[in-house]
């Protein structure tokens, strides 16, 4: 039985992906913020396959470290789906001092993936990132990316973070493809999820205007499931998929100098937490 690790599998695209993988017989490990809430969802959705729940708040670096330590005890990880993500309509900071969009979408996944890299390489895993076409609007000002000391425009912040994810994806491919790791990113489409819930009117209005064009989470889940399960696609590692096919990404993603700067910056940000003793 193959094993898939999924962040944010208790709602939206993540839950739809988990359902499809269940039908294919995958053992699953869900990384979620709220275990109790997820157990209720698990019962409601009537999952029959073996699912292990691990508490992990991607905006909390100690929580990410605890989750990674547990994952290192898993015999094999065939697929890691870095699915969790959110857009925020105002500037907020985590308890570690990072802008919340950056920490939730990018830095938590950066730390998690690197902390379990030995296990991923040993397993010759596939690593899948949910990105967005919004990355094309992104720019790479590292200090602003992490701390947002200047202006905050939600969609611009989201685009910057998705560009960081794309750079991370391609950097992993560049470093580890020769060792058997396969890495992909994808645009799931414009999806009808709860992303506008509890948001300001501007985000809600945008969601209402787009409603007729939105696809279901079930439809959006087809692409991550394809990348997780399709045989013999290792040669496509480093690709970004949209509408079921790899599409051109360009120098904005593949520039090694930019990626190196981002990786060094990210490593510097998480380094203090690696040295901390984890509270259980």
Question: Which features does this protein show?
Answer:
single chain; alpha/beta; Rossmann fold; eight-stranded mixed β-sheet; 12 helices; 8 strands
Could you walk me through the main structural features you see in this protein, from its secondary elements to its overall organization?
With 280 residues, the protein is of the alpha/beta class. The chain has a single domain, classed as Rossmann fold. 47% of the residues lie in helices and 14% in strands. It is built from twelve helices and eight strands. It has helices spanning 12-23, 35-45, 61-71, 100-115, 117-123, 142-147, 154-176, 201-210, 217-220, 222-229, 251-254, 256-275; strands spanning 3-7, 27-32, 51-55, 79-82, 126-130, 182-187, 239-242, 245-247. Strands 3-2-1-4-5-6-7-8 form an eight-stranded mixed beta sheet, with helices on both faces. Helix 2 links the parallel strand 2 (27-32) and strand 3. The longest helix has 23 residues, at 154-176. The protein starts with a strand and ends in a 5-residue tail after the last helix.
Distance between the termini: 30 Å
CATH T-level topology: Rossmann fold
Sketch the major β-sheet: 8 strands, mixed
Helix content: 40-55%
CATH superfamily: NAD(P)-binding Rossmann-like Domain
Radius of gyration equals: 18 Å
Percent in strands: 5-15%
What are the segments in which pLDDT stays under 50 over at least 5 consecutive residues? none
Please list the strands of the largest sheet in the order they lie side by side. Answer: 3-2-1-4-5-6-7-8
Return the string of H and E elements.
EHEHEHEHHEHHEHHHEEHH
Give the strand tally: 8
**Strand-pairing-aware structural class:** alpha/beta
Overall spatial form = globular
Summed up, the helix count is 12
